[in-house]
Amino acid sequence: MLAGLLDGLFNGISIGAVLLIAALGLAIVFGLMGVINLAHGELMMLGAYTTFVVQNGFKKLGEPWFEFYIFFALIMAFIVAAGVGLILERGVIRHLYGRPLETLLATWGVSLILQQFVRSVNWVLVVGISIFCLLFFGGLWILHRRSDINRIRNWVVAVMLPISLGIAIATSNFLSQTYKLAVTQPWFGAQNLDVSAPKWLRGGLPIGNFQMPYARVFIIALTILCVAAIYVFLQRTPWGLRIRAVTQNRSMSACLGIPTQKVDALTFALGSGLAGVAGCAISFLGSVGPNTGQNYIVDTFMVVVVGGVGKLVGTIFAALAIGTVNYLIGSGTLALLFAPIKPLADFFTFFATTSMAKVMVFALIIAFLQVRPGGIFPQKGRTVDA
Questions:
Q1: Which residues form the domain of 171?
Q2: Rounded to the nearest 5°, which phi and psi values hold at 339?
Q3: Pair (306, 316) in one structural domain
Q4: pLDDT class for 385, splitting at 50, 70, 90?
Q5: Is the model's pLDDT at 168 over the cut of 90?
Q6: What is the pLDDT of residue 382?
Q7: Residue 214, SS3?
Q8: Contact in structure between 33 and 268 (CB atoms under 8 Å)
Q9: Does one domain contain both 262 and 348?
Q10: Distance of alpha carbon 82 from alpha carbon 275, whole angstroms
């Protein structure tokens, strides 16, 4: 029974560690800009798919290189997710600041687009999107550099959009008809994909009758490294100081010359990159699919709310608590622990599934927020009204 409890605690902490990495980015974005980003789970999904792609690339290089692919995958997952987050902030979010409902709906739409994108992405789609972006956004860049056509700028944009779209669609249709399945077959498809861990992450460290899987130990170590890096960045760097200043008082920061728009973009990219790192960690806990992010996004939001918006310490406590309690209930560990007490054993047995455990944890969070609506570490002073 003791070994089962230790196993449950360790697995719960490892799941909480993944939630913590994802919640760090969400807490920074939500705390700074007040943006509820429903596409955060899909950024985690992109990090997981990036890990899958990097793994396949290193498999072709041979056995010695494959053992180190995880480090390159972490970097690439961060870069890909941060890049997509930056595009999302520059293209959508920055036009919707101060309108939380519109931001909520827009990011939800982006999440659906990203899910469908990974299901159907192929060479035809990539070529079509690339041609459209090159023509349309390249044309916008040229227009911004020409001040002599301001009066007809809107008309030029209205003409550029259908022309760019038409050329992109025509090129894509030509490729699909010419090369058939060679370029139209989806890269990933709707099915789940498996990521293989390097040999040194397989197996576990035996401690008595209890074994600690190396993959979960690696995830916990990665989480500690990410928390330390974020703390150093926010507390010891000039841009971290600017982020904290904008978080506390955006108007005063702008008056002091801090580029708030650049701070917003950097913060969103940083939070998105952390979601990509979390996706890389998730790939070692199960298969990767288009709905991977949806399995974690609700828990991630609960971590941010319970910990206290924008509070790093609160996010750490909430992530570990929610991940551990969720696993202990869902795996049936608590049902076995309270086996001598039949009413409690029957109660926890009823909730000993993944879906019912989430219901139980959600009910506990609602009860907790009735007592402390500001979370474990609520905001105080001027930051409450900022």
A1: 122-185
A2: -55, -40
A3: yes
A4: very low
A5: no
A6: 47
A7: helix
A8: yes
A9: yes
A10: 8
